Amino acid sequence: MFFQRLIIQQKNTDREIMSHILNIKTAGIPLRQAKKALIMVHGRGGTAQDILSLSQHLNVKEYAIVAPQALNHTWYPLSFMAPVEQNEPWLSSALEMVEETVQAVTDAGIAPENIYFFGFSQGACLTLEFLARNAQKFGGAVAIIGGVIGDKINRENYKGDFTGTPVVLGTSNPDFHVPVERVYATANILREMNAEVTEKVYANFGHSINQEEIELANSIIFK
Question: Taking CA atoms, which of 50, 75, 77, 157 is between 20 and 30 Å from 83?
Answer without folding.
Answer: 50
